[in-house]
Every structure is written in C-alpha cells, then in structure tokens.
Specification:
Blueprint lengths: L5 H33 L14 H21 L22
Length: 95
C-alpha cells in the first residue's frame, strides 16, 4: 500500500486533458450539427410554374383582365353622393 507506479501516475496525468479535449469535441460537433441543420430553404418547395418571367407575365395579364372587368361591374361613385373634388397637389419645400 505504498506509492503508485510511475506508469499509473503518467496515465492519471494524461487522463484529464484527454477528457477536456473529448468534451470540447462533443460541444463543437453539436454546434456544427445544429448550424448545419439550420442551413437550407425553409418551407414548402415552390413549383417552377410560379417562378420566372413567364409567371410575372401571366400575373400581369390576370391583373389587367381584372382591371378591365372592374369598371363594368362596379359604378365609379355611389349613387346619391357627389364626387369629391380635391385641390391640386402643391410641392412642399424646395430642393
């Protein structure tokens, strides 16, 4: 029950830094995994028909058709109320 062997003392001396390195490795791997999971697109995929110039042209055509249909179906001003006339706009300040 005397002193420990030199080999045992060497093992105990090296054990603590190895545990620290192992702990930091686990922490860094956890951070990398969490940040890697956060990369990428979130949400549903967008259909190719909804992207690009052709989709914009179709949206503009739909908007123009809606504008053409709106004046015919709705009156310009409600009946019985006169149209409000506003004064012309004046510039505020000089540049």
């Amino acid at each position: 029950m005397g002193t420990a062997s030199p080999r045992r003392l060497e093992f105990q001396r090296l054990r603590r830094p190895r545990q620290l390195i192992r702990g930091w490795t686990v922490i860094l791997l956890g951070i990398l995994a969490a940040s890697g999971a956060g990369c990428g697109v979130v949400g549903d995929p967008i259909a190719p028909e909804d992207i690009g110039i052709e989709a914009k042209v179709r949206a503009q055509q739909r908007a123009e058709e809606a504008l053409r249909e709106t004046p015919e179906s709705q009156p310009a001003a409600p009946e019985g109320e006169p149209e409000t006339v506003l004064p012309p706009l004046q510039p505020i300040g000089a540049q």
